[in-house]
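name: query_chain
kind: protein
chains: 1
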Amino acid sequence: MKVSRDISNKQFDSKVRGQMSGEIGEFAKNFNYMIDTINFTIRDITDKNTQLKSIMQSVSHGILAIDTRGKILLINDLAKKMVEGDSYVTAEGKNIRQFIKNELILESVLHNMCSEHSTIIQKNIKNDIIYKIKIDPVHFEDTDAVIGFIINIENITEYAKLENMRKEFVANVSHELKTPITSIQGFIETLKMTDNLDTKNRFLTIIENEATRLTRLIDDILLLSTIENKTKKKVEKVDLFEVFEEVHEVINYIAKKKNIKVKYDFENKDIDLWEYSGYIRQILLNIISNAIKYTGENGKVSIKQYIKSEKVFIEVKDNGIGIPEEDIERIFERFYRVDKARSRDIGGTGLGLAITKHMVKSLGGNITVESILGIGSDFIVTIPVDIK
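structure:
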């Protein structure tokens, strides 16, 4: 009697003891064998359940399984967080109406619980966070009968942003390429219809300028693609001041045409930087030439270098046209121009600062800007330093 009561109370370690013969002995033997089988089955189910829960927790998406009435059968921690359920409450056994606090997710699941086919919903949850919710019906063996649903919730915010950037990039590239090509085609058609030598030379000069701009744009796109794809390049150590002197010769020539004074102050001229071939030169050239381009006649550009917290700071300051406050956060985006007409007039492709930012990042550094419209801009590049 005691053993039967123990078994009824799920105490499966209880067994019939003592030596018995006849039918009673055979019954006791079979009863104990049955208990061993139950114990083995329970351990097997427990192990499989533990494995299933481990797999559920290791999945990078939110996963939950529910029955046709909405009762939660399984759920991983990420799903609990994504549906905004109480992490301290056991979700299994509760109805989704009780547990899922995010109204958009709950509404999406409830709306599609009658479907016999997989459903994919994309929702902007809050603060531009985008979830993809996939609801798959679970069928009973090979029948059409639905016995539950597997709900997969994936945060695709970053993917959506990248996809939008890709679409915007393609649209911008198409526009930027189309403009000079259309211009070249138009002037070629005009050249065919004129015999005036001065007109021909003027149009040929315009075509040459547009072709140069087109080449420069394609070169910048290819360079940006190479940097973004992290194409392996040879790493080498360069002397920062030596590279700056090379750049200074180039930009000083440009500055003199506008009577712009370029001053520099290097705190330490014995600094080595690890870089990919030409990156430091390109970074310096881009930010200093930009300062000159957007500074008016008789203006000033100053370059300051100093060391702080094992990083070298390169600060390029001008008293040029400055950047509107609403545009500051976007100037490093590809093809973003504060003043499109002015940028094109001075030969900008709209990729210079995007290239600069990616180069700086690839060297483990950072680039920031402070600017006041009509007062000037201050670009600061920081790169890890190797002090001699």
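note: The longest strand covers residues 129-139.
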